[in-house]
């Protein structure tokens, strides 16, 4: 379950930091990618060299890179991670997390993280039971973090009680269970289209649209995070995606249809999020067309409708999702597409909604089902919208 997962491991200044080396080693053996962040005091208990040797990555402790000129971006780290684990988490760091104090790279990454965060406390028994610590842990849980309870046993002080950091093997099991619960699409094959298509006029000009591909790429990431085997067919875009997704880049509508037909047979779910050009030039000049006169006429012919083509081939076991970007009679037009193209679900977004459509990092959607049920969602980031779409699919195929 940890194969290919990106884990940020936070290490705080505790005698239990020696267990972080074991935890890092187990994560690497499980196939995870591990980036370790240390608080300034943590290096007094275990050296960054030890941990970087285990993970084959530099351990990050400061915002500034030692060579200068660049900085370690807590934002990028927070976006990169599938999961953040802070083990050991001291009373000091837990208090800062609970109150939004941001005085280290680790804490800045925690506040920036969009992924789940798991916290494994480690401290002496009286510190662990102090009302302020218990209150801070309760606040972290209220924020949505998961606490990996400290264990009972002999402590560094020589006392016996609860406060020992959970054993690395126990933490690995908890992480595996976490991803198991997040694998509703395990064993499913998902084909997703994204981005625009470019239809050539001549070697330097084309007909296209303003689609960035962000929505389709976000859906691919959301489906992959649920354990799906994802193939993403993307038109021209500068976006990239995790290597666990099978990315196939195309240019024209004909290219996209060809790849989709090659791939669709074994797919369980098809999500057609690409903004495919409706028309293409009938003839493509093999030389750059020279400017002549005040007007220019291009004879356009209709492109194949990818959704309709695949909808006609759709098998009973396949679940197919289309998209409708409308400017008028939005719901009526989307329902017509839903039925005409044999879709199971269609995602409607309107260019009349501020922050929705092309070129934004946000979107506002309404999901319509073939059973006439519908659900409206507020304006959200495209990552959040992607999760909503994938969750709707999961609910329908169960």
Total tally of structural domains: 2
How much of the residues is beta strand, in percent?
A: 15-25%
- How many alpha or pi helices? 13
Strand element count? 21
* Coarse structural class: alpha/beta
The mean pLDDT is 92
Name of the CATH first level of the largest domain: Alpha Beta
What is CATH's topology name of the largest domain? Rossmann fold
What would CATH call the architecture of the largest domain? 3-Layer(aba) Sandwich
Largest sheet: 8 strands, mixed
Radius of gyration: 25 Å
Q: How far apart are the termini? A: 21 Å
CATH superfamily name of the largest domain? CoaB-like
Strand order of the largest sheet: 12-11-8-13-16-17-19-20
Fraction of residues in helices? Answer: 25-40%
Q: Unreliable stretches, pLDDT < 50, 5 or more residues?
A: none
Textual characterization of the structure:
The protein is of the alpha/beta class and 398 residues long. The protein folds into two domains: 6-181, Rossmann fold (3-Layer(aba) Sandwich), CATH 3.40.50.1950; 189-397, CoaB-like (Rossmann fold), CATH 3.40.50. 34% of the residues lie in helices and 23% in strands. It has 13 helices and 21 strands. The chain has helices at 18-29, 48-55, 74-80, 91-99, 105-112, 125-129, 131-142, 168-181, 214-225, 253-264, 306-313, 330-340, 382-397, and strands spanning 6-11, 33-38, 83-89, 117-121, 146-147, 151-154, 160-164, 189-194, 199-200, 206-207, 229-234, 246-249, 269-272, 279-281, 300-302, 319-326, 345-350, 362-363, 366-369, 374-376, 380-381. Strand 19 (366-369) and strand 20 (374-376) form a beta hairpin. Helix 1 runs parallel beside helix 2, helix 1 (18-29) crosses helix 8 (168-181) and helix 9 crosses helix 13 (382-397). The two termini are 21 Å apart. The relative contact order is 0.09.
